[in-house]
Amino acid sequence: MSVSIASLSESLPQFIEQQQPSAVAVLVDNHTARYCYPLVKPLLPKHTLIRIPAGEGHKHLATCETIWGALTKASFDRHGLVLNLGGGVIGDMGGFCAATYKRGIAFAQLPTTLLSQVDASVGGKLGIDFQGLKNHIGVFQLPNAVLIDTAFLGTLPERELRSGFAEVIKHCLIADADEWARLRRYDLEDLDWNRTVAHSVAIKERVVAQDPTEKGLRKILNFGHTLGHAVETHFLARPKGRLLHGEAIAAGMVMEAYLSLQLGLIDESLLEQIEEYLFAVYGRVALKTEDTEPILVNTLQDKKNRAGQVRMALIDGPGQCAYDIPVTKTLMRQALDYYRG
Question: If you average pLDDT over each of 153-157, 198-202, 301-305, which comes out highest?
Fold first, then answer.
């Protein structure tokens, strides 16, 4: 897998020329069709445009059938190429559909959100939600290329940009103490996005290269995600109150940093740093007491679990992370109570 951080006007035509596909499809949603596709269309040969509804609520098998059906209707053979132009939902689902169509055709990620540029597009995790459970069905399959152009970040609402920033924070907390110290000195609007994206991508690439299918080390990339995903899943059923991924992960990082303290992995000063910074950037998710048990039930579906035991990736110092740490329901309940304040 090659990752390029450059203008698409340079990287995309060159990639297509190298690939020599028999046909090209571009997968977009309502938003990227309007704001991003017009910037990409002039760079492409003749192609099939596949348009799906935007949002996590459409990341399911029925939408996959639409994508597979469009590829079939266009008579795509196994030498075709799918370009996934969008955020994490487009990349996860488009990659999954490409990886399973005729047992696998080439695909490239063209991430347009900060979340997808620093996290979702890199590493080859593909999948869809199933029966209300996030990323429950999927495969590991590396894309043929990830072509990142930070110019797309200018098309994002501020809330989407902030959502993606949670994964930047996570990468610093688990793997780069110096960058965590530097990051806390900046406001979101003052960051150099080329530098920030490249730093996060480098961390994720390094981890994934050592553990492509998440048997061990790669689990550190899930810091904040056990309780974060459980919270995100809980809110999926609330169309008007739905959380963005990064908002839920920010909440998860506060709770899991609290667990790191309770298990003796970090000191109180680091928890205070994390808590102060994340609450300043994201505020506090309005979790009610009655949300606790449904959220705890969701943690039982986490993919890091083993034999019914919830296991987490928890930081064990600035820029360090441990994994496969068993955490009891009692401790998780305490973490939710702590987060509520």
Answer: 198-202
